[in-house]
Design goal:
Layout (H helix, E strand, L loop, with lengths): L13 H7 L9 E8 L5 E4 L2 E8 L3 H10 L4 E7 L18 H12 L4 E6 L12 E3 L2 E3 H18 L3 E4 L6 H11 L6 E8 L6 H7 L19 H12 L4 E5 L5 H10 L4 E5 L1 H12 L5 H15 L3 E4 L2 H8 L2
Parallel strand pairs: 1-3, 1-4, 1-12, 4-5, 5-8, 8-9, 9-10, 10-11, 11-12
Antiparallel strand pairs: 2-3, 6-7
Helix pairs in contact: 2-3, 3-4, 4-5, 8-10
Bound molecules: ligand PBG.
Ligand PBG binds next to helix 6.
Length: 325
Amino acid sequence: MYPLQRNRRLRGSESIRALVREYQLSTDDFLAPVFVENGKGKKTEIPSMPGYYRYSLDVLPQEINALWQLGIKGVLVFVKEKEALKDNTGAAAIAPDGLMQRAIKTIKNTQPQMLVLTDVALDPYSSYGHDGIVVDGKIVNDPTVELLAQMAATHIEAGADGVAPSDMMDGRVLKIRQCFEANGWDNALIMSYSAKYASSFYGPFRDALDSAPGFGDKKTYQMDFANQKEALVEAKRDLDEGADIIMVKPGLAYLDIVSQLAQNIAAPIAVYQVSGEYAMLKAAAKYGWLDHQPVMLEQLVAFKRAGAAIIATYHAKEAAQLIGG
Ligand code: PBG
């Protein structure tokens, strides 16, 4: 009770603040999303994601080395596929010499210790821009899941450490895990996008991969953003099906979900600070309306406070440069 207790004592200097600080950011926390495209000598800036690029395979090693030198030990790989290769069967997604499969090899040849997790969903390969196979205007679950397991297998075969299914089909974690076990890949990781919401924050990402849905939206498979309990159901199910890491996406608008899962799920929780979150901060900074660096760090620490063990973020490199390895 005042004056015996004064809360400001623990805030009096940076030394005491540092001593009692509860959460520290570290480069160990980060996964850096990496965008890959076809062609040669390409480093293409994504207009709605200033300072973020897609790389062709010959340029990719430089970026991987830069990330590794900054202390970032894991990447989440995404590819932008050629329009001509998109179809409704996922042929380009499961090709052993597909862009993703070659990207995995390139990264592993560059930095064998870099943890490679790959995006598993059909949207970058789909002529409809949907995460699954489309039949009569509907995204069909079970045939999609079969295909996703095949796709995941080609990623592990190419040398990925694990996969991150982002499609939100039912049962895909189980199918992928069974496929991995059947192949003897006991150590292949599954980081499941368990609580992935149908969000308008994904807009810039869809620009980056040219993967916006051609018709309708993703609300029949991604979660309704008005729901909280459902996240727990999804997370528990994915854990039972063999997931190792449970992810929440997007980030900042879903800290309640991160916190809920961190308290109730006995697995590491990852959060994905998505493209729209990155774009908002960059835009505000460009206008001089927000100070980029401190706002970025404040947001990243918020993820840790909420209980995230892993943060997938487009700010990984910038944050690593600030906080050191
Ligand atoms: C693909 C996928 C998306 C994102 C990650 N994987 C887009 C979507 O579901 O439409 C979004 C990432 C971001 O916005 O940064 N299924």
